[in-house]
Amino acid sequence: MSLQKIQIVKTDYKTAPDDLLHLALDFSDKMRKERAPNDPPIPRDLLVKNAREQDPHEEKHVFLAILEEVGTKMVVGNAVAGWFKPTAEGYESNKHIASINVSVLKEYRNQGIGKMLLKEVVRQVQENPVITSVFAGSWTEEGKKMCERYGGKLSSDGAENRLELKDVNWDMLHEWQQAGEVLGKKEGVTIQFFEECPDDIIEQYCMVYQETMNQQPLGEFDGVITITPERRRRDEEKNRKLGLKWYTFITREKDGAISGLTEMLFHPDMPYKAFQNLTGVKQEYRGRGLGKWLKAHMILWITKQHPTIETIVTGNDETNAPMLSINKRMGFKKHMGQSSYKFEKAHLAHLVLGT
Questions:
Q1: Where do the domains of the chain lie?
Q2: Which of 71, 127, 241, 252 is a good FRET partner for 203, with 20 to 30 A between their CA atoms?
């Protein structure tokens, strides 16, 4: 295939014409099919809503590689560069960081399309003088080799792990929950549920969330994940617009302090799957089984609420031994690896653009 048939188009999903957006979503569907060939397709209207809903505090540059042949157009690759705007929470701690992603359909790899797209996103990053660190991730061997070729330093190895409910040891989960209830009665610990964080605890909750989020293994990441009440409310509003259910359980100590949390996402249009997000316990409250109690309580609850769920999906860093241990005992198995690489912007620009 001649690269002359490839046109690189910059677009904004929020304002892109419907025909162009659907070409981009067709590409995303094909990439998802490669990663998880047995998964049902995600409803298109949900994908459209999500694509149109952009965070106003993040700057994002999207490029599409479009192949046009015999009057037909097809997106065969895309690339995205993004970073925080000055209005974003945590801007001062993260303003030097950009993320990039380059994807190409399997049958069009190793033909120079990835390099064309990479040049576009690196040019965008190069135009921001504040940025010094660039992060990129890949789950394909081609992508990993590309990251290494352009000076990427392995930052972390992670994985998407999946729990098939048919494989769950339900007796063990009930034991974990019962042990938690015993601890609760003995030490005055209670479990609280919410979808929207209550006003009276949102400040404390965001502090706990941020602390436990940043205590995870983050590899070479040199920023700070920042969670504020304003960001929480904004994320809640976005999920409402998308029809996404955001379920959270927290543990509270006798004095009212929040000691741990676990959360899951569920969408009625994807009734077969739920997504386990953060589970965290504050450092001073660890070693008492709170993590197991929260995880067990959540799964027992959500599968009762939504009996259509067959699979629970989560992501973990391969060095997060405590959480991996809990997940392994629950029955989570590795579905797909994901490696993250860190680049020094100046070095990356020199290798890609010759600057």
A1: 3-159+340-353, 169-330
A2: 241
